Amino acid sequence: MNRQTALFLLPRPLESFILQDFVRPLLAGEDVAVLEPGRMPAGALMRLPAPLAAAEAARQAGRVKVEGDLAAVILMHPVLWPLASALLARNPGAELWYGIWDRYDRAPDADAKTRARVGALHDAASGRANWRFAVSGALAELEAAKGREVDVLPPPHDSFPAPDPAQSIVAASMGHLGRRTDWTLLRTLVEDMPELTLLMIGAVHPDETPDDQDMHAVLNASNAVQLGSLPDEAAARVISLADVCLLPFKKDEFNDTGLPQRILKAARVGRRTLVPPLKGPLTQGEAVTVCSTPEEWASALRAAKHADRSGEAGLREWALSNNEALLLAPIRQRMQALGVRA
After folding, report:
1. CA–CA dist 274, 294 (Å, integer)
2. What is the C-alpha to C-alpha distance for residues 170 and 164, in angstroms, rounded to an integer?
3. Domain span including residue 176
4. CA-to-CA distance for 173 and 201, rounded, in angstroms?
5. In this structure, are 177 and 151 located in the same domain?
6. Parts of the chain with a pLDDT under 70
7. CA distances in angstroms from 184 to 31, 44, 45, 287, 340, listed in the order given
């Protein structure tokens, strides 16, 4: 028996396709391939008169090569129906599987003529499909009303990070982020404490220290979130979501004597501020904890973690169990039934 291949037709490159978490895990199968748009955008076929669209689709289909026999064409947007139709004409033994993930005929970013055209392509593709799957029950019901059976396959999101909220520590820093900032300290904390989320409130001024590699590392760290300047009301609400606040100042003569206003502001929403060994902040010693070494900073951060930041454990377990192994099982089973190694 020849090799059996399933081919995804994508309206965008995989990296920018909204359902890449649906497609990417299946590409691990030896017999699963993807066809991304070439030089002609996916929607260009839709804008051509029907005879020209059919001719161009036939030309493109003639250039598509897969290993072995084409067992299934998996259409992921109706604008590619002309290409799918041409591939089926060249491969009469192949099935058409149609993935429905939006109400294409009601798209708010298209004019009435375009919506009507996409709706017609959708009906043609759905009417021809050997198997249809939709991301929601509501979309499946719309097809059922037209007498078309649809399975519901919500897409997985295994690539989306899932830090454990029970272990997370949230710290907020408010104010100027530039030459006064101890970027070396912040880099150490965000790199050595993956459980730390640093909320950075305030304008960042990379021009003040353009060659500071520690600054660039912090600004590119996934657990250091830049929020920019915020109005006081918004800043107060962000701080109220944090376990503790930070004053990440360098230890120098300029920083040593001032009293940063952020200490009292953080205290107003019940948040202590961790500070380096500077004299000025000790003016409000009731609201600060002095940390002299990175180890002391890390220890103080962990000690500040609130016990009630764990979230809903049952909900988290449900979400993590809805992974690609579970949600993509129906399409894998259909591929295997065709002899596709998925």
Report:
1. 12
2. 12
3. 169-304
4. 6
5. no
6. 1, 307-310
7. 48, 51, 54, 24, 52
